[in-house]
């Protein structure tokens, strides 16, 4: 389970920093944004989703103290 949490934390990090040189293009235009800006926008939305999933996993295992 710790490996799953590690992967869920690592995916947004890699998508926002490591993959940026791969998407650093103006074309195609998606929803009025260049690919680069659209990529960052999508990951700004998805990162809290991944964080919430990690939170729920830890809470269900009793690893969080409130």
Describe the structure.
With 66 residues, this protein is mainly alpha-helical. It is 71% helix and 6% strand. It has helices at 2-18, 20-23, 35-60; strands at 29-30, 33-34. It has a two-stranded antiparallel ribbon. A hairpin with a 2-residue loop joins strand 1 and strand 2 (33-34). Helix 1 (2-18) packs antiparallel against helix 3 (35-60). It is elongated. The mean pLDDT is 89.
- The strand line-up of the biggest sheet is 1-2
* Number of DSSP strand runs: 2
Q: Give the helices and strands as they follow along the chain.
A: HHEEH
Q: How many distinct helices?
A: 3
Mean pLDDT: 89
Work out the helicity level.
over 70%
Largest sheet: 2 strands, antiparallel
pLDDT < 50 runs, ≥5 residues: none
Distance between the termini: 21 Å
- State Rg: 15 Å
Estimated share of beta-strand residues: 5-15%
Class by SSE composition: mainly alpha
Shape: elongated
Topology:
Elements: H1 2-18, H2 20-23, E1 29-30, E2 33-34, H3 35-60
Antiparallel strand pairs: 1-2
Provide key terms for this protein.
single chain, mainly alpha, 3 helices, 66 residues
In short:
With 66 residues, the protein is mainly α. The protein is built from three helices and two strands; from the N terminus they run ααββα. The protein has a two-stranded antiparallel sheet with strand order 1-2.
């Amino acid at each position: 389970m710790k490996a799953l949490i590690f992967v869920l934390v690592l995916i947004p990090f890699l998508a926002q920093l490591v993959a940026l040189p791969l998407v650093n293009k103006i074309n195609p235009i998606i929803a009025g944004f260049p690919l680069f800006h659209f990529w960052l926008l999508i990951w700004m939305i998805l990162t809290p989703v991944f964080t919430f999933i990690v939170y729920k996993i830890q809470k269900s295992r009793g690893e969080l103290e409130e």
